[in-house]
């Protein structure tokens, strides 16, 4: 029988399939910045191009959530087992994803920065509504579902802020999920900061696996955390303090 680590090593995250999708969407949004500046005053600017990106990106987030549920590490988590028992045979929804993944990855606490282009947009917190005190649904997720079911009525919800939050959420998932982390380390996109900047990939992967949540363990290699930068975002992963 395969161990959890062995099972993880044959998943599509380690093949880079999910990151390939993210990279494509990140590139498309960056190209769009030539026509819509990522300035805070443009946060409610909407268009059909943004609608296309919001639907594609949010769909990728939905697929990412569902793929994570197939990971042996996730399936052994008590919160997953509890929610799975409640769900039974019905299809998982955003509330189920929130109730499982917020407890594992603390998604609501993460923010990404959009510092590039003609004007910096600043930071966004895509899963802020996932906080246990709120147990809400992100606005961009609601906009995505509205567009799917009544496109022209809700087209104005396909705005820059919702697209940036949706894509930022996809980046956070890629950067925090354990198998995806290992792939990003191998291709040198996820990098340690500060004192651990010179650590080898082998050491960094070893340190990543010491933490039971998405954040790297607070040890020498990741004492100052680590970072991933794309054409649109910069995301700092804070060290696991536990």
Report on the structure:
With 242 residues, the chain is mainly alpha-helical. The chain has one domain (7-178). It has eleven helices and five strands, in the order αααααααββαααβαββ. Strands 3-4-5 form a three-stranded antiparallel β-sheet. It is globular, with a radius of gyration of 18 Å. The two termini are 31 Å apart. The mean pLDDT is 87.
Structural class: mainly alpha
Helical proportion?
Answer: 40-55%
Radius of gyration: 18 Å
What characteristic shape results from the CA principal axes?
Answer: globular
> Uncertain segments of ≥5 residues (pLDDT<50)?
none
Query: What's the domain count?
Result: 1
Count of DSSP strands: 5
List SSEs in N-to-C order: HHHHHHHEEHHHEHEE
Query: What is the count of DSSP helices, taking H or I runs of 4+ residues?
Result: 11
Strand content: 5-15%
Query: What is the averaged pLDDT score?
Result: 87
Distance between the amino and carboxyl termini: 31 Å
Most strands sheet: 3 strands, antiparallel
The largest beta-sheet arranges its strands as 3-4-5
């Amino acid at each position: 029988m395969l161990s959890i680590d062995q099972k993880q090593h044959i998943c599509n995250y380690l093949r880079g399939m999910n990151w390939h999708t993210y990279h494509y969407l990140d590139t498309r949004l960056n190209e769009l910045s030539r026509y819509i500046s990522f300035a805070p005053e443009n946060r409610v600017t909407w268009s059909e191009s943004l609608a296309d990106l919001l639907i594609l990106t949010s769909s990728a987030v939905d697929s990412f959530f569902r793929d994570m549920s197939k990971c042996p590490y996730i399936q052994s988590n008590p919160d997953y087992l509890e929610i799975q028992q409640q769900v039974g045979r019905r299809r998982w929804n955003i509330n189920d994803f929130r109730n499982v993944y917020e407890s594992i990855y603390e998604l609501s606490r993460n923010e990404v920065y959009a510092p590039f282009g003609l004007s910096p947009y600043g930071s966004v917190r895509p899963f802020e509504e996932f906080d246990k005190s709120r147990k809400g649904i992100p606005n961009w997720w609601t906009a995505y579902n509205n567009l799917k079911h009544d496109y022209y009525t809700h087209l104005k919800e396909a705005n820059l802020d919702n697209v940036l939050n949706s894509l930022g959420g996809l980046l956070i998932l890629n950067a925090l999920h354990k198998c995806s982390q290992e792939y990003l380390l191998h291709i040198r996109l996820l990098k340690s900061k500060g004192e651990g900047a010179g650590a080898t990939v082998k050491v960094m992967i070893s340190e990543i696996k010491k933490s039971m949540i998405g954040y790297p363990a607070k040890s020498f290699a990741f004492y100052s955390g680590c970072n991933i930068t794309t054409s649109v975002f910069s995301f700092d992963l804070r060290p696991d303090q536990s």
